[in-house]
């Protein structure tokens, strides 16, 4: 990990941790791995990401968000690699390589019966993230193409960005097994967009937990665990109006699409101390010369000893 990233992490932790130690307790954690290889089997575009969330609250989780902003906080760290379809040479019609670490703090609360999430992130991009080197090690071990010097030289450069995001979702529950959540989202910073969509969960597990949304896939992962067992299926779809993206800058010949669509399906399963989530997400084209749409997979394996 680069010196710059280490400095950013240390600074944020110094600011946040003392306050949490006094007023908050850890009430949950969530994580999700998303990768193109466990989707359509390729290694391109939205290639891979991993998110880890730690949830802190002033009270234990009781199946509902608190009504006050700041009473339930999520600390989130996320790494992502976005890349062209070919890593061996630069294609002027393809997107540039990009690596990013994101460190964020988000509040989740209830307002007028709606689930609300508001927060901010620090987004560090470029070779200083250390992610290109990590990917090179993994690809070398797997015997697949590594990013060439020309591809890495053209990547999105080293820079620290500030971002903000918010989501409002209206849950409609039908008994204990069915949950429909239409939502609206706005993001500004590394990518500026507005999005509307809906998720449908049906089953016996997870519908009463804190639901967190993965940035790239839109899949819902769980930030709390009340110890219940069961199986739940998830369906979702959304569409976004995209205004700008640091990963597809205006000065590039590659032009981002005005709209961006996603359709997803997944399954949560939990039995005692063991559980998993697997989901697939169809991603519409993100830039005009993108050859085709993309299918990415998301995975979480839980095994508590």
Structure characterization notes:
- The protein is mainly beta.
- The protein is built from 3 helices and 15 strands.
- The strands form 2 sheets. The chain has a 12-stranded antiparallel β-barrel with strand order 1-2-3-4-5-6-8-9-12-13-14-15. The protein has a two-stranded antiparallel sheet with strand order 10-11.
- The protein starts with a helix and ends with a strand.
Uncertain parts: 4-9
Largest sheet: 12 strands, antiparallel, barrel
Give the end-to-end Cα distance, rounded to a whole number of Å. 29 Å
Structural class: mainly beta
Encode the helix/strand succession as letters: HEEEEEHHEEEEEEEEEE
Our estimate of the beta-strand percent is over 45%
Lateral arrangement of strands in the main beta sheet:
1-2-3-4-5-6-8-9-12-13-14-15
Approximately how much helix is present in the residues? Answer: 10-25%
The Cα radius of gyration reads: 19 Å
Mean pLDDT: 92
**Outline type:** globular
Number of helices: 3
User: How many β-strand stretches?
Assistant: 15
Kindly summarize this structure in a few lines.
With 305 residues, the protein is mainly beta.
Draw up the topology in text.
Layout: H1 3-23, E1 25-35, E2 45-57, E3 72-83, E4 98-111, E5 114-125, H2 131-142, H3 149-153, E6 159-169, E7 172-174, E8 178-188, E9 191-203, E10 211-213, E11 220-222, E12 230-245, E13 259-271, E14 274-283, E15 294-303
Antiparallel strand pairs: 1-2, 1-15, 2-3, 3-4, 4-5, 5-6, 6-8, 7-8, 8-9, 9-12, 10-11, 12-13, 13-14, 14-15
Kindly list the characteristics that best describe this protein.
15 strands; two-stranded antiparallel sheet; globular; 3 helices; 305 residues; 12% helix; mainly beta; twelve-stranded antiparallel β-barrel
């Amino acid at each position: 990990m680069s010196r710059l990233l280490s400095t950013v992490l240390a600074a944020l932790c110094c600011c946040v941790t003392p306050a949490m130690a006094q007023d908050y307790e850890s009430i949950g954690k969530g994580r999700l791995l998303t990768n193109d290889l466990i989707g359509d089997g390729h290694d391109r575009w939205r290639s891979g990401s991993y998110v880890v969330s730690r949830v802190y609250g002033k009270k234990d989780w009781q199946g509902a968000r608190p009504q006050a902003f700041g009473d339930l906080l999520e600390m989130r760290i996320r790494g992502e690699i976005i890349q062209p379809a070919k890593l061996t040479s630069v294609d002027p019609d393809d997107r540039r390589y990009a690596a990013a670490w994101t460190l964020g703090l988000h509040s989740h609360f209830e307002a007028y019966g709606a689930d609300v999430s508001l927060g901010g992130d620090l987004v560090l991009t470029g070779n200083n993230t250390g992610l290109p080197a990590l990917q090179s090690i993994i690809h070398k071990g797997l015997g697949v193409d590594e990013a060439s010097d020309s591809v890495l030289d053209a990547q999105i450069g080293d820079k620290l960005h500030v971002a903000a995001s918010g989501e409002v979702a209206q849950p409609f529950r039908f008994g204990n097994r069915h949950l429909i959540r239409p939502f609206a989202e706005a993001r500004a910073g590394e990518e500026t967009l507005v999005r509307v969509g809906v998720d449908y969960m049906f089953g016996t597990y997870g519908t009463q937990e804190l639901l967190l949304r993965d940035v790239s896939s839109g899949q819902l992962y769980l930030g709390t665990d009340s110890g219940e067992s069961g199986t739940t299926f998830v369906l979702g779809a959304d569409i976004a109006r995209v205004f700008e993206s640091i990963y597809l800058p205006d000065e590039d010949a590659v032009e981002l699409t005005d709209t961006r669509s996603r359709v997803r399906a997944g399954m949560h399963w939990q039995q005692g101390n063991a559980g998993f989530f697997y989901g697939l997400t169809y991603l519409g084209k993100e830039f005009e010369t993108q050859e085709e749409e993309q299918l990415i997979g998301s995975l979480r394996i839980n095994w508590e000893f």
